[in-house]
């Protein structure tokens, strides 16, 4: 399953960990255009908040559209991958739901965030994997199959994990109705995803014809969600923008680093460690924004809106760096082998 551009972005063909050619160009275009699109939407929400007045109640339905599109991109093979690598997928799931919620709580305390912003940052941390994580893993020459499996499981289990985690960590800041939140996640995430999967299974050949359109439909929908969220707290953004950006950058950056570190400590290998970095550090901020708007306030949804832009930008940059390091290591290894072969011939 793929986010925030969350398999909502063009997914790598055949889940290959080696990007190249037209697929690579399409993926790079997606992770370049999506942040720009969301940034423009946020600017519209900030400059013309009246345009989106009263749209807040539509956010859960908009998220449902994104999740339905995600379900349409899924196949049964995504679930088979979980059974084939339970240890690695389990590690990714635990790392995701331990590292990011914990970081959210620590950052909220360290920066002395207001209750609304603190709850929003923690809620982002408690969300499942981001929708763009699979594409960014692909660009980083990472283990895309592992990325898909972790994202799938984290999203399916979100109704059971996100509400109690939010209650545990954000309950000291604001009242959290975990039961109501669980119901909302079931209605806006799990049911649309399952509906999309069923439609894909029944009408697969017809869905295949429009798969190239779904990522952009999802991206546009997420952009509208961001515009609505920003418009709802436009008056307070100027005073809190710098602090929220700092919180988001720290949250995302530390998540990427600790996710990669978890893969290294578990000796999963470089490609799988790259996948772990993005499955931990990238969040379904569309879901976080929807839940924050419905259960807290538009201001609490602001960290999710900022995260939506930033984690795609940072993910693309980190993926480019990882891909460069991977190619350099391969080139060095090839040169070493060639040198050893030449020495053997002379001997």
Q: Can you summarize this structure?
A:
Helices cover 78% and strands 0% of the residues. It has 347 residues and is an all-alpha fold.
Q: Layout of SSEs?
A:
Blueprint: H1 21-47, H2 59-73, H3 76-84, H4 86-110, H5 115-126, H6 133-139, H7 144-156, H8 158-170, H9 178-202, H10 204-210, H11 214-232, H12 234-265, H13 270-281, H14 285-295, H15 302-346
Helix pairs in contact: 1-6, 1-11, 1-15, 2-9, 2-11, 3-7, 4-5, 4-7, 4-8, 4-12, 4-13, 5-8, 5-14, 5-15, 6-7, 6-13, 6-15, 7-13, 8-9, 9-10, 11-14, 11-15, 12-13, 12-15, 14-15
Number of strands: 0
Largest sheet: none
Q: Secondary-structure element sequence?
A: HHHHHHHHHHHHHHH
- Which CATH-level-2 architecture? Up-down Bundle
The portion of residues forming beta strands comes to under 5%
Subcellular location: Membrane
Transmembrane segments: 26-47, 59-77, 89-111, 117-137, 144-165, 185-203, 210-234, 240-263, 275-296
Keywords: Membrane, Transmembrane, Transmembrane helix
Membrane topology: Multi-pass membrane protein
